[in-house]
């Protein structure tokens, strides 16, 4: 399934910048910016939103993220004018615009369906939209990242510790590469106790160059998952 993402903002610069940021981590995902009014002012445009949805017509589904309340109202109006088939493809997320777009784009790049993309977006900044997904409440982890439940060692658990050698550590693009690699495996994967398939959880760890991280996987391809992620970290994420 191909999931496209439409970014709706009152500012054309914010919409365009958010799309550019997300493309750094999800180059293959169709992303469209619909920002500002038709005359270049601050506001939202029914026509721009409608055109954006049509521009994403090749995608199987479209996830829309908005910045402020009136952007949702304009989006709802645009949806009302779509035919039934197009309207069914469009899903509006309540996630924060920038964080939600980045998380959604990484999930789509990893091959997630529309439910997975919506769930990824909903983890942004502790939000939870109607389409499901866990929030990231403040806890005992740096940046408020949520520690994955740990009931003790389990049969089939594979663990490895590796040092971050790239300049930026587990931030932005390297974190996105880590999440995409983890998402290709069926096993549950953690890094320093947080879900390795959640971009925002990984970034919230704020692990810098030189820090050591512990990767743990449980499941049918646990060894391959750990080996793949260790190799990715040791390669410096290609930087």
From TrEMBL:
Region named Disordered: 125-154
Transmembrane segments: none
Keyword Kinase included in the entry's annotation: yes
Enzyme class, first EC level, given as a word: transferase
Gene3D superfamilies hit by this protein: HPr-like, Phosphotransferase system, mannose-type IIA component
Domain PTS EIIA type-4 per the UniProt entry, residue ranges: 2-136
EC numbers: 2.7.1.121
UniProt GO MF annotations: phosphoenolpyruvate-glycerone phosphotransferase activity
Bias (Low complexity) ranges: 125-140
Catalytic activity: dihydroxyacetone + phosphoenolpyruvate = dihydroxyacetone phosphate + pyruvate
UniProt entry keywords in alphabetical sequence: Kinase, Transferase
Domain HPr: 157-239
CDD domains recorded: PTS-HPr_like (cd00367)
PROSITE patterns recorded: PTS_EIIA_TYPE_4, PTS_HPR_DOM, PTS_HPR_HIS
Pfam families: EIIA-man, PTS-HPr
Keyword field contains Transcription: no
SUPFAM superfamilies, alphabetized: HPr-like, PTS system fructose IIA component-like
Subunit and interaction comment: Homodimer. The dihydroxyacetone kinase complex is composed of a homodimer of DhaM, a homodimer of DhaK and the subunit DhaL.
NCBIfam families: dha_pts (TIGR02364), PTS_HPr_family (TIGR01003)
Function noted in UniProt: General (non sugar-specific) component of the phosphoenolpyruvate-dependent sugar phosphotransferase system (sugar PTS). This major carbohydrate active-transport system catalyzes the phosphorylation of incoming sugar substrates concomitantly with their translocation across the cell membrane. The phosphoryl group from phosphoenolpyruvate (PEP) is transferred to the phosphoryl carrier protein HPr by enzyme I. Phospho-HPr then transfers it to the PTS EIIA domain.
Record protein name field: Phosphocarrier protein HPr
Organism: Curtobacterium subtropicum
Gene name per UniProt: dhaM
